[in-house]
Specification:
Blueprint: E1 9-16, E2 26-33, E3 39-47, H1 49-52, H2 59-73, E4 81-84, H3 87-94, H4 104-115, E5 123-126, H5 133-138, H6 149-169
Parallel strand pairs: 1-4, 4-5
Antiparallel strand pairs: 1-2, 2-3
Helix pairs in contact: 2-3, 2-4
Length: 170
């Protein structure tokens, strides 16, 4: 049986439905990957402004939300690498950057992760988002950062969640 402890990588992504900020909502996705490069856990969803307790959901909030949800899923003492195409979110999680315009409940969840020591042994890496097929083959994006099919999966999961939310709202 596969457990989260067998994961060596966490990939996350977030987005908004329509314009940023969105009065419709935002999307988030994460996946855990094992040493064979297989996704062993996948999760994604939508958060509305009402659920987020905000007037409109921003991309920065959904990127951070995806990271927090994924990190919460990992066991204490996990030592893998966290990948995101959001430098703002990576800084907020691992470098204690300011949390302006982040809902209080999300700040509290992030701070709980930071205080419990769960993040201490983790590495993190910025990815280039939305790579072309050629960039995926090369493994490097247009800004010189790594790219990954797992990040592409997370982006695709966000897009699917956004399409479903738009259909539901229609």
């Amino acid at each position: 049986m596969t457990t989260t402890a067998s994961a060596i990588a966490l990939y996350t992504d977030g987005g908004v439905i329509g314009a940023n900020p969105s009065r419709i909502g935002g999307t988030w996705a994460y996946c855990l990957v094992n040493t064979a490069g297989e996704r062993i856990v996948e999760a994604s969803g939508v958060i509305t402004p009402i659920q987020a307790n905000v007037v409109a959901v921003t991309n920065n909030v959904t990127e951070l939300l995806a990271l927090v949800y994924g990190l919460e899923r990992l066991p204490m003492g996990w030592t893998g690498t966290v990948y995101s195409d959001s430098w703002v979110s990576l800084q907020r999680v691992f470098l204690a950057a300011k949390l302006r315009n982040v809902p209080t409940w999300l700040v509290q969840r992030l701070q709980a992760l930071q205080k419990c020591g769960k993040l201490a042994e983790m590495k993190y890496e910025l990815l280039d988002g939305h790579p072309t097929k050629a960039e995926l083959l090369a493994g490097i994006g247009k800004r010189g950062h790594k790219v990954s099919t797992h990040n592409v999966w997370a982006d695709s999961a966000c897009q699917k969640a956004a399409r479903a939310a738009r259909l539901e709202a229609a």
